[in-house]
Design a protein that fits this description.
mainly beta, Porin
């Protein structure tokens, strides 16, 4: 599992070593620790993730592993905050035996601050940048929207992305999916937080059913290393969709570098 194997231990090390926790505020209303878990927050971040799947339904010997890079860049247009996010996954192990880059996704969200939190609306695109056999070979586009509400130490909300095929290889199945991501995070002292994992409920409009039904938890620690703010996250998910060769358990490690505005 590469360097990400050690992220869980590094989180514990950070606590034992008493590295100074980052308690700055990302804006006037939200702590940096809370904003790190908020997909609508206007904070630049670069994260490296590893998703390890030790078990698959209907394929007892199969295992999977994916490395992923994600960059979130905030910017302003006509006085409105926007967040552009690029996600690039790389499959290192899969039940099919194939490895290589998978398709990238790019979305932009325009956000609006409210007294209770923040909401946003935008668009998401699927880019067929993956390698042969892994890529969907489809271009996709669709709306994205979501909201987060925060009160004291609690952050909760919902994020939705919808991707519909607009072009691509006609011999390959269309990609028409809706992705629903619940958000819950509870801030603890010294930069620690707990909440649900990055679990997503995927509805496939081609099959007219959900094809991902996960339930997961996470533990996160935000620290300062020199002048840099870094969040380490470990999470576990159980998927209850057991049709076909589907992931059963998933372990995720994340290292997120935060670049708050000055």
């Amino acid at each position: 599992m590469g360097i990400f194997r050690y992220l869980g231990g590094l989180v514990i090390y950070c606590a034992i070593a008493s590295i100074a926790s980052a308690q700055e505020t990302a804006d006037g209303k939200q702590s940096l620790s809370q904003a790190a878990s908020d997909p609508t927050a206007s904070i630049m971040s670069f994260q490296f993730q590893e998703f390890y799947t030790p078990n698959y339904y209907n394929a007892p010997s199969a295992k999977g592993n994916t490395l992923q890079f994600r960059a979130a860049i905030p910017f302003t247009v006509l006085g409105h905050n926007n967040i552009a996010r690029l996600t690039v996954p790389y499959v290192t192990k899969s039940p099919s035996g194939l490895s290589g880059f998978n398709d990238a996704t790019l979305f932009n969200l325009t956000t609006f601050d409210e007294s209770w939190g923040r909401w946003g609306v935008g668009a998401v695109a699927l880019l067929p940048t993956g390698e042969s056999g892994i890529s969907t070979e489809k271009w996709g586009l669709g709306p994205a929207f979501g909201f987060t509400a925060h009160h004291d130490k609690i952050l909760w909300g919902l994020f939705n992305q919808n991707i519909f095929t607009v072009a691509g290889d006609s011999s390959r199945p269309d990609v028409n999916v809706s992705i629903i991501q619940p958000i819950f995070n509870y801030s603890l002292p010294d930069g620690w937080s707990i909440g649900n994992s990055e679990m997503t409920f995927n509805y496939d409009w081609e099959q007219n059913k959900f094809t991902s039904l996960p339930l997961g938890v996470k533990l996160a620690k935000l620290v300062k290393i020199g002048k840099h703010r870094v969040q380490f996250i470990g999470s576990y998910e159980r998927n209850f969709y057991d049709t076909g060769v589907a992931p059963s358990d998933k372990i995720q490690f994340t290292m997120k570098l935060l670049v708050p505005s000055k």
